[in-house]
């Protein structure tokens, strides 16, 4: 199984720290699966101009094709102006409408204060639903106060990240069973 963790911003460090922790948890609990961290600070991405994702070149092609090949995607995003950052929105714009069909997608969100906890419900989940994702209903919201010296210091956050990883993997397994049963209905 291919799992992609996306650190969806090119500024700041908290989202990347959270996503590195998610990758560590995935690699420790599910060592047989292929885990890839796409930290958008490491890539030079073109702005979406309406082409198919496979027509781009370089980093843009690599990032979009890696996401399209994934079975599960864990999106990490900071909260900017009560919404997702433009870099993450550009990723969604680069992908086709049905990009997340048959993929499980979960979310980790960082923000300066608790005032933005509904951003996922109002901004991110509608985009993911439109793109046909199987959305893990729970998400992890991490505030500024949960970090100290570039580490997550809140044990509850670490527990919730671990649970999100587990919920994501269980959801993938459940949908694999559902898909197999549907495939059995066909006689070819």
UniProtKB/TrEMBL annotation:
Pfam families: FMN_red. Keywords: Flavoprotein, FMN, Oxidoreductase. The keyword Flavoprotein applies. Residues 1-144 form the NADPH-dependent FMN reductase-like domain. This is NAD(P)H-dependent oxidoreductase. The keyword Flavoprotein applies. GO terms for molecular function: oxidoreductase activity.
